[in-house]
Amino acid sequence: xxxxxxxxxxxxxxxxxxxxxxxxxxxxxxxxxxxxxxxxxxxxxxxxxxxxxxxxxxxxxxxxxxxxxxxxxxxxxxxxxxxxxxxxxxxxxxxxxxxxxxxxxxxxxxxxxxxxxxxxxxxxxxxxxxxxxxxxxxxxxxxxxxxxxxxxxxxxxxxxxxxxxxxxxxxxxxxxxxxxxxxxxxxxxxxxxxxxxxxxxxxxxxxxxxxxxxxxxxxxxxxxxxxxxxxxxxxxxxxxxxxxxxxxxxxxxxxxxxxxxxxxxxxxxxxxxxxxxxxxxxxxxxxxxxxxxxxxxxxxxxxxxxxxxxxxxxxxxxxxxxxxxxxxxxxxxxxxxxxxxxxxxxxxxxxxxxxxxxxxxxxxxxxxxxxxxxxxxxxxxxxxxxxxxxxxxxxxxxxxxxxxxxxxxxxxxxxxx
Length: 417
Fold this sequence. Notes:
Layout: E1 7-9, E2 15-20, E3 29-34, E4 40-41, E5 43-46, E6 51-56, E7 62-70, E8 73-74, E9 80-84, E10 96-98, E11 104-106, E12 111-116, E13 126-132, E14 139-145, E15 148-153, E16 159-167, E17 170-171, E18 177-182, E19 191-193, E20 199-201, E21 206-211, E22 220-225, E23 230-237, E24 242-248, E25 253-261, E26 264-265, E27 271-276, E28 285-287, E29 294-295, E30 302-306, E31 314-320, E32 329-333, E33 336-343, E34 350-358, E35 361-362, E36 368-373, H1 376-385, E37 408-414
Parallel strand pairs: 1-9, 11-18, 20-27, 29-36
Antiparallel strand pairs: 2-6, 3-4, 3-7, 5-6, 7-8, 7-9, 10-12, 12-15, 13-16, 14-15, 16-17, 16-18, 19-21, 21-24, 22-23, 22-25, 23-24, 25-26, 25-27, 28-30, 30-33, 31-34, 31-37, 32-33, 34-35, 34-36
């Protein structure tokens, strides 16, 4: 039926109307069809219980009255009115359109939308056109399957456009659709900056910024993955084309930070962010001949501060001793990036006091009291008197880089995380 309740008929085409009489009880189904001029149109009642079919062929255009009775009693909705014409305007209200191409697009980027005619009550031709102040946009229409079409287009100028969708010469519901064409996105014009892109410490703010002002409107997304667990990334839109970011990791280790703008990596992405645990001075180990008692001649004033496992932080070393009798030097161990080699090589005998801090917290074994004697005999006499002072610090506690020394001298080294 059409939207006015008419049975749709086509001149010189057989029309069949089925009836289910399974619940009607015994009786004879009869039909009478009257044409536009009141003449009776031949019709047939065919089929066996429970389904009977009434059929006839309308010869001319116009209205037909279809009366159906069962044992001479009208059936529900009888008589029906039929309308014969060459074609019917389809119910385009049931033609649906959906997809991103009906709302927005970007310059030189292909976009699309779909058209579904499965609920239309008759066949019809789909027509799609796009118009705007800068001219029309070419549309490619492809039939994907029965009653389903896809319209694809690529705009070349930004601005407001109207998408017209017609079915059987009638505009579908919602047409014309307003579409905004934005400038194309250049994700490489988006820049990220800040120390949080390189390193951070669990429990402390790990911040960085993103500047998308040169890239045009778009959607910023962030994803950060740790060795085993994902990290949360807080994004604050500053409403001026820039964003403030803060990473909240759940574990130490190497994290991979992906920053995308409209689903494309920005310049430098993905970033490698090294996350350390909070500083732990108790994990710093200090060992070597430079923290043992010895004899000035041949004394090796070198020791190692191993900060592995101590988290991120800064190592400080301060050495007190005879004024002008030593100079502190510090360098990273080329074989172990969490170890710092400290050298002070005294030039005079005396008492030397070595203090070590990790992130401003003195490590448990500090201070180290080192006696440098003028002769081997003096050293042996001392060790005989104090045997517990022999080989005291072959291996001790842990720390991360920064150093100091002097008559007193102090040096500092910041550990990589």
